[in-house]
Amino acid sequence: MKTGLELFKRFGRTFAVVVLVVAGSTVLVRFAPGYLSDAREMDARYGGVARAELAVEADRSNSFGKCSEQSLADGRRATWASRANTRFLFLS
């Protein structure tokens, strides 16, 4: 019973910390100008060009299909390389 109560207290503390972090981040995003913004976007002269460049970069890198395809290819390559290295070590 005592360990159950201690576990419940730890869970409660952890939950409270997570809630406070979420609330603090929400306040910062809402009221802090430039929070989660690239410094290049904040420049009055070159902000439009920087936003366009960042949009192109985001489109290129955030495609779910491309990311998952690249991850699978990397995984296959790593698996093959580890097998090849293992064979090489045993043959030496």
What tags apply to this protein structure?
92 residues, 84% helix
Strand fraction equals under 5%
Secondary-structure content class: mainly alpha
Helix content, binned percent? over 70%
Number of helices: 4
Overall geometry comes to flat
Q: How many β-strand stretches?
A: 0
* Rg (CA only): 24 Å
The biggest sheet amounts to: none
**Overall mean pLDDT score?**
76
Order of helices and strands: HHHH
Low-confidence stretches: none
Our measurement of the CA-to-CA distance between the termini, rounded to an integer number of angstroms, reads 59 Å
What does this structure look like?
It is a single chain. The chain contains four helices and no strands. By secondary structure, the chain is mostly helical. It is flat and about 60 Å long. The N and C termini lie far apart (59 Å). The mean pLDDT is 76.
Architecture blueprint of SSEs:
Blueprint (H helix, E strand, L loop, with lengths): L1 H30 L7 H4 L4 H15 L2 H28 L1
Short description:
The chain has 92 residues and is mainly alpha-helical. The protein has four helices and no strands.
